[in-house]
Amino acid sequence: NKTIYILAIESSCDDTSAAVLSNDKTLSNVVATQKIHEEYGGVVPELASRAHQQNIVPVVHQALIKANIDKKQLSAIAFTRGPGLMGSLLVGTSFSKSLALGLQIPLIEVNHMQAHILAHFINDGTQDNQPEFPFLAMTISGGHTQIVLVKDYFDMQVLGQTLDDAVGEAFDKSAKILGLPYPGGPLLDKYAQLGNPKAFVFPKPKVADLNFSFSGLKTSILYFVQRETQNNPDFIQENLNDICASIQYTIVKILMDKVKKAVKLTGITQVAIGGGVSANSGIRSALKAAEKKEGWTTFIPKFEYCTDNAAMIGIVGYLKYKEGNFAQQDISAKARYTI
Ligand code: KG4
Ligand code: ZN
320 C-alpha to center of ligand 1: Å? Predict the structure, then answer.
């Protein structure tokens, strides 16, 4: 059995990433994060695609060097087809198609959301406990908020998702209202750990089924801050930790209530999470607590595999390679692409 070497490319949002795998094992995973968006307070699609254009060749080069693999040894190229920003996806898609054509090797298309979930199967020698099918996965990031029933590698069903903002956006927009720089999620988390989560009460949305909504929360935080600063201009500075703790408490409660509902509906007690918001201390400790209180088994990937990365694209590429599931050269990127 000959070793399969896969080069994986991820460019769906604002991170340019390339990884090299030897069978299921990750040899390298290089990520170039785009700093340019910070000054705009959010990802600017046009700037993102230009930065991918600049980054992609050096990032791929680095990934090959770190893996100590020559491009002539590659067996296939896996790339993110969608969902994501069209201009960003086009860079990775066109690059991957050209390279596969030049090297005369197969092309493998990957759904970014499937990849976030299958990131639990990345093998870099350090991630040991993996979920078993079927399990529940909650993807929580700046672009996604979904609860997915994972029956098999490529048999997934979205049970619920956000009807408006993603949970990461809820963190970032709340942080912005408090005057914190973008992306404010990690900072809000930092202050939240120093405050009282019950200091202020924010309304939780009433959303049917397993769906989420975060836009109402953002508005209520805005009105709350406007009202309080009218009475006391220093309100935010004087109460920053408590405000952050209360916001985080509310968001984590919204997420946990829905996962609990999903567990109840499906009877499945293995719960996995992924996406940048998995770094949040509140959601992490709520999941840990549920292991004891509810008897769940929970799975949180290493942080570098929670945020956008090509290693997760690579593991999906490997699984598809084994099935002989290849893409044609006329394939195109898909901004909207369901699991
Ligand atoms: O997965 P990711 O890197 O990019 C995508 O959006 O796909 O996720 C980034 C999001 C941002 O909204 C960021 O504020 C949020 O994850 N985030 C956090 C924390 N760390 C990252 N939100 C809350 N608490 C954190 N510790
Ligand atoms: Zn993502």
Answer: 28
